[in-house]
Amino acid sequence: MAPEVEAASIAIDQDGIVYLVYGGADNNGLNHFIYYIRSDDDGGAWSEPKLVFTYTSPVRSYVENSDLAIDGKKRFHVGITIRSLEYSIYSIAFYLQSLDYGATWIQRELLPEGRPGLALLTPYTFGDDEVHLTCIILLEWINSRMMGDHLELSSYNRHNGGSIWGTQSTC
Question: Which domains does the chain have, with CATH numbers?
Answer without folding.
Answer: 5-170 (2.120.10.10)
